[in-house]
TrEMBL record, chains A, B:
InterPro entries noted in UniProt: HTH_MarR-typ, MarR/SlyA-like, Tscrpt_reg_MarR-type_CS, WH-like_DNA-bd_sf, WH_DNA-bd_sf
SUPFAM superfamilies, alphabetized: Winged helix' DNA-binding domain (SSF46785)
Molecular function terms from GO: DNA binding; DNA-binding transcription factor activity
Protein name: MarR family transcriptional regulator
Superkingdom to which the source organism belongs: Bacteria
Database matches in Pfam families: MarR
Domain called HTH marR-type: residue spans: 9-149
Keyword annotations from UniProtKB, A to Z: DNA-binding, Transcription, Transcription regulation
Gene source species: Pontibacter oryzae
Length: 149, 149
DNA sequence: GTACATCATTTGTTTATACAAGTATAAGTT
DNA sequence: AACTTATACTTGTATAAACAAATGATGTAC
C-alpha cells in the first residue's frame, strides 16, 4: 500500500519528504509486528538484541560499552536493560578484575534456551518481509547504508 | 557506512534479517537528527506532524480520529498531543455541534507561523537525505511500500 | 422511549525514553 | 604522591509510549 494511502495524504512536496515519512511509518509498522511477538516470549526488542549480542561472544563476556556499541537502538540504557535480564535469569554480571570500572556480562543457559525459543518462531515474524525478493531486500539495505552516508 | 560496521556485526544470517536491523537502525539515525531539530523549535516530531495535518485542511477543522488516521506514528495519544499544542497556542479545540462526541481542532495563526519557521529550516534537515539521488529516494520509498504489502 | 451496542475521546497506569548529573576506577601530569 | 582528566557505569528526573479501561454521545432494535 502506498504511503500516500496509508496516511491519507494526496502528495508530498518532494521525493525526499516522501521517503522520510515512509521510513518513519514503515518503522512503526515493523515495530507493531515485533513488539507483540517478543512480548509473548517475555522479552522486549532491546532485551532480545542484548541477548543476541551476548550469544555472539559466548562464552566470552561482553562489557556494557561493547553492548551499547553493538545495539541497533543506541539510546537504550544498558544498565537497566541488564537489570531486567538478570531478574529473568538470562544473564549474569561480574566486575571485571583487570579493570574494576567494567562489568562483564554473560548469557546463561536459560538465556540461550530463550533465544532458541525465539529462533524457532522467527520464520513467522519474517513472513511479511518476503513481500520483497532477496534481491530487493539487499537493494533497500544498501540504499539505507548509502542514505546514512 | 555498512550496517555491519555500524553495529560491529560480522554478518547476518540472511538478507532479510540484515534489512530488519538496517531499518531499525536507520530509523534511530533519522530520529536523532529530527529530534534536536524540532526541539530547538519547541516542538516534538508528533506535534509537528499534527500541525502539518491541520495546515493541510486549514481553515477547515479536523477531528481527532482523522488526525490519528493521518499521523505517521499511529500510537500517539492525540488527546495529550492536542493538550500540549493548546498550551503553546498553536491550535484550538471546540466541540463539534453536529456530533457532540467529536472535537474540532484548528491551527491558529501562531501555529501557522511556527510551521513557516520550521519550513524555513527544513533544507538543513534534509541535507543528509541527498546522499541518495531523487531516483534512489523514489526507489527505496516504493520498495518500503511493497514491503508492507 | 428504553435497552444495548457503537463510536469518539479521555483518563489511568505501567513501563520505557531522553538527557543530565553523579560515582568510582584508571590513566596521565607535574 | 597529589592533581587533573578521561573512562565506564549508575542514578535521577521529566517526558512520552503502550495498553487497558472508562466516560459520554449517538445510533439501532424492539
Amino acid at each position: 500500500m502506498r504511503i500516500e494511502d496509508e496516511i491519507h495524504q494526496k502528495e508530498f512536496k518532494d521525493d525526499y519528504r516522501r521517503l522520510l515519512a515512509n521510513l518513519l511509518f514503515t518503522n512503526n509498522w515493523v515495530n507493531q509486528q515485533l513488539m507483540p511477538f517478543f512480548k509473548e516470549l517475555g522479552l522486549t526488542l532491546q532485551q532480545h538484541n542484548v541477548l543476541a549480542i551476548l550469544r555472539g561472544q559466548h562464552p566470552e563476556p561482553v562489557c556494557f560499552g561493547d553492548i551499547q556499541g553493538r545495539m541497533v537502538d543506541r539510546n537504550s540504557n544498558v544498565t537497566r536493560l541488564i537489570d531486567k535480564l538478570i531478574e529473568k535469569g538470562f544473564v549474569t554480571r561480574d566486575i571485571c578484575q583487570s579493570n574494576r570500572r567494567m562489568i562483564e556480562v554473560r548469557i546463561t543457559p536459560n538465556g540461550l534456551k530463550k533465544l532458541q525459543e525465539v529462533d524457532a518462531k522467527f520464520p513467522v515474524l519474517f513472513e511479511s518481509f518476503h513481500n520483497l525478493t532477496r534481491e530487493e531486500a539487499v537493494l533497500v539495505s544498501n540504499l539505507l547504508d548509502k542514505l546514512r552516508g
